[in-house]
Structures are given as C-alpha cells and as structure tokens.
TrEMBL record:
<protein>
    <submittedName>
        <fullName>Allophanate hydrolase</fullName>
    </submittedName>
</protein>
<dbReference type="InterPro" id="IPR011051">
    <property type="entry name" value="RmlC_Cupin_sf"/>
</dbReference>
<feature type="domain" description="ChrR-like cupin">
    <location>
        <begin position="16"/>
        <end position="103"/>
    </location>
</feature>
<dbReference type="InterPro" id="IPR025979">
    <property type="entry name" value="ChrR-like_cupin_dom"/>
</dbReference>
<dbReference type="GO" id="GO:0016787">
    <property type="term" value="F:hydrolase activity"/>
</dbReference>
<dbReference type="Pfam" id="PF12973">
    <property type="entry name" value="Cupin_7"/>
</dbReference>
<dbReference type="InterPro" id="IPR014710">
    <property type="entry name" value="RmlC-like_jellyroll"/>
</dbReference>
<keyword id="KW-0378">Hydrolase</keyword>
Amino acid sequence: MPETTRERLTSGGWKELEFGPFRDAVTIHWIRPFEGDQPGVALLKYEPGASVPRHRHEGLETILVLDGVQSDETGDYTSGSYIVNAPGSEHSVWSDTGCVVLIQWDRPVKIFEDEIS
C-alpha cells in the first residue's frame, strides 16, 4: 500500500478521497481492486440509514471501522473496531448514523438480493 494511502487512513485524510457508487447510500473508494486471485481492498462509506442486504462471504472478510458505527446481526461496531467474518459466514450490514470502514475481501461476496432481482 503506498505511503500516501496509509497516511490518509490514519489521519482522517480519507475524507478527501473520491468515492464512487457501490449500493444505495453506500459508496466505495478502491485501494486495490480484485485482480486475479488477489483480494480486494477498499473504503466503504455508509450514509446514515444505509444498508447492504444479506450476503455470504466466499472468502475471509476483515473490516476496520474508521469513523461512525457499523452494525450487523451480532452487534454494533464503533470507530477502532476490527471485525473478521469467516468464509461461508452470512450477515446483513447497516449504519444508523453513517460510517466509513476499511474492508478487505479475499473473494467477492454473494449478495442474495441480487439473485432474486
């Protein structure tokens, strides 16, 4: 990860980064997109009340909450929380107040709502 990226994450400089569409009321800034069998690393920004529907992790997912509160069925995670979701685990995610998280996926997730659409 380039030094400038590290500094932006630890000093709140992520606020100046450009985010693009991901899901309704959730935007993404790719640090390292998926490439071949390499994991994807990104920042996700949830607007207050935003959610991601139930999904399954095809690989390991790690999350560091940088700002705000992210929630799932097992709890609420405040700034500084580190979450690990094992391959095969399922959950939905939301943020009542809004949040920004650093996330790494070993593999893309499978969102169940997309199968129905």
